[in-house]
Amino acid sequence: MRKLADLAHSRAGDKGNTLILSLFPFEEENFSLLVEKVTAERVKEHLGQQIRGKVHRHVLPELHALLFTCEGALAGGVTTSLALDAHGKTLSYALLELPL
Amino acid sequence: MKDKIRIGCGAGFSGDRFEPALMLTERGNLDYLVLECLAERTIALAQKRKQQNPELGYDIFLERRIESLLPLLVQHNTRLITNMGAANPIAGAQKIIELAKKLGIKVQVAVVLGDDVFDQLPAAALSMEENKPLHAYGQLISANAYLGVDAILPALKTSAQIILTGRVADPSLFLAPMIHEFGWSESDADRMGKGTVIGHLMECAGQLTGGYFADPISKPVPGLANLGHPLVEISREGTGVILKVEGTGGLIHPQIAKEQLLYEVMDPGNYFTPDVIADFRSVRFEQLGPNRLGVSGGTGKMKPETLKVSVGYQAGWIGEGEISYGGAHAVERAKLAGAIIQQRIGSYFDEFRVDFIGLNSLHGDSISLTGLPYEVRLRVAGKSSQKEIAQLVGEEVEALYTNGPAGGGGARKFVNEVIGVVSILIDRNQIKSEVQLFES
Q1: Any idea which fold B311-423 has?
Q2: Which of A18, A48, A77 is opposite residue B364, by nearest beta carbon?
Q3: Interface predicted TM-score (ipTM) over 0.85
């Protein structure tokens, strides 16, 4: 089964309790495929319990990038979270597990 | 006035490696070196050190970094801009002067003050994160406003070689020397936006040269063990060329720069700093040669009327305990161990969690469950307002050696004080920054 990791790379960042995931195709020609397949709804569904709030998607055609802001995703935020990865830094690779 | 300036970034967080800054200063032909060493929580921790000893509260690595850097800065006529002043820039400057005297070096340090707004904090102000009044967070520790270029510029106008700040916005550390050297107007929102793009790209140091990008399968980066940090040559027009010192490891590449451009950005069309509301959407990267990347584009709107203030508060204690299991029934034994701890102490905690490292500790159950691992590590964590209760987590996990399932090993226990951070906005006119000069 093909997954997102075969076509794209991602970086996770955090602001408070919001997880920020960027997504970039390795080849620019695959950008439109990502726009079509990787919707905010699919990301929320894929990450499941991890995300308690809304997912918003920014489409950045000049950068050939997508950016997802996921609210309520970091167990309260890095400074007080009990999670092993309190920043949610490893979640970029959770996104890349999304089946295509 | 110069047509081009070169700025290097030798550290992207307090604990960053030491040698890239030395390499940049020695071989980067820099006008300015920036060391960005102050995360949100770092300043609250520094404030606590200052409360215990009024001569402390600057960055814990300040002495080690400055001692090796200072002779090179003087030799190469490079100015240093750094937020290593943390919660106590004056004490930090005095320490630098003491080091300079010891080394027999004449140097001036300009200190930027005014970010500490703890004494003027409105207790009824609502946090941006939860819309809760500050007094609901219990005991507050620190409050530091993010200052901008308007606070740093007067320091650059002095003859000081070192500019030492507390909390300022990270991109402002880079934008200030651009304004100073090129005579840009602070009301030129387009140039403020372009300079902020470059500052934002640079502020995490090694993340722009392939650190935190590398994946040996899909995104290989050469020479990570000797990763060089970036420098940028900036033109009067606000375009840049990103480079690194010849012979260092890492890679300068558009895909790396794109990951960094969007890193920790909530809205790429509206990136708020004290200097501008920057728009990153039209930024362009162009590979000009090996390890040579052009950056252009980006713009901005007028700076906001408010400044963000990070407020640190006491948030109790977190206790953690870990123990590993391997071989037959490893997962079942780890789960039994977790259930034992949960039953014994789970109810003592406001927040409590049991994870299985190797199975579900990072991404939860829904994505991770794809077959059983050979070995698994139980991790238990609990948060409490009392240190003694938090300590129970590690003690109980350790007690699994003789009281729990077979074959547990490698138990570890940790207890850490928790400093929470929330943000509020305050009117920027309430904040008065100033500069003080020190010399050896």
Answers
A1: Alpha-Beta Plaits (3.30.70)
A2: A48
A3: yes
